[in-house]
Amino acid sequence: MAPTFARREDGTIPLHAIGKDDLDDWLKGQDAAVGRWVHANGFTGARGQALMVPGPEGAPVMALAGLGDAQDRARHRFVLAAAVAGLGEGAYDIVSGLTGQALENECFGWLMSTHRFDRYKARTPVKARLVVPRGVDAARVETLAAAEALTRDLIDTPAADMGPDELEAATRDLAAAFGGSVQVTEGEELLSANFPMIHAVGRAAARAPRLIDMRWGETGPRLTLVGKGVCFDTGGLDLKPASAMALMKKDMGGAATVLGLARAIMGLGQKLRLRVLIPAVENAVSGSAMRPGDILTSRKGLTVEVNNTDAEGRLVLADALALADEEAPELILSMATLTGAARVAVGPDLAPFYTDDDAAATALAEAAETVADPVWRMPFHAPYEEMIEPANADLDNAPAGGFAGSITAALFLRRFVTASRYVHFDIYAWQPKPAPARPKGGTGQGARAILQALPRLLPE
After folding, report:
1. Above 90 in pLDDT, residue 1?
2. How many Cβ atoms from other residues are within 10 Å of residue 28's Cβ?
3. Which domains does the chain have, with CATH numbers?
4. How many Cα atoms occupy the beta-carbon half-sphere of 77 within 13 Å?
């Protein structure tokens, strides 16, 4: 269930969000009894601290939540959410300490701290509920939370229950909820419809590969989102070790993220023509699996030498990107859990992206800072183009040497987009250890930054 605000009602508890450097000034405006209570309980405004302040009858008359110091706020997102677990049961109204965009971001963090993936196990609900603070657009924040919840739930669902069929069903459900349409090309139809690399990657699996094509909106600029939908990745004949397979249910994190972004766009009623393309496959092992050394001919006509069957994501994305480019939308944006090299470069918390457009890069970076959804620009470094050009085909899906793996993957994808502005995200889509508003598990990356930047990325 998507996180929502609580209803404002009698008994709503005023909440003061207080930083360590603001506590003394705040106490000057309070009764002496409040000051004694605060000091007696050791409340300093440290990040994660929470304190209930009782009235004469013992019932809480207010609550305090620590925001930490300036360094805490620079290092950590959703500092208010760190205090939510320490608050007692009830509905809370943030009445001081946060304003503007910071208040909206912290409201989003609070809502996401209440989200639980409970499909397979009952979870204890968060007792502290948030009412809509004055000045906050409740519908917008709830829409963002619902979008992120969708992304997380899709990623967290194991591959047995989130294969190509189920990913298609999730897309159909989303389209139906907002009046969109879906067309699917499946199995052997992929060959006759000229998606040979999607077919080659997915043909070894028991569940048929497919290209999912969702459309929504009748007017405005055209935006096409392409999400990698590898529902499980064994590595194919270049089989992964067991330790590397443990998180491969998340290899459809790009698809989950673009579906969450699409939900936000549709839920906010943005004036654009949206298209979502998801090549949904399993990279499996069987007698029909593609082999190292095979040369595939892509939808675009470029030939690709398969030098590692575990570099399959760029193959399925290439066919989908070629289709997207044929329509020449104003913007094509791809999201994929594509390379381990990106994790080595920037770690799990940053979402690296590639674009040739400096204005687009600036818009994304500034939007990311605004909404606390960090991204980092990486280079389409032209001198590395020769690394993806083998002797026997136009392109190599896995250049030897191991250098610049995320960059060469991005350069590979760029070969399939020629008519449109293009941005590619190489995301991790996983929170490796719990953090406020971000439990261990699937997570969206970059979607809120993209949403914030869209007015600058698309023509009016």
Report:
1. no
2. 8
3. 13-135 (3.40.220.10), 143-457 (3.40.630.10)
4. 22
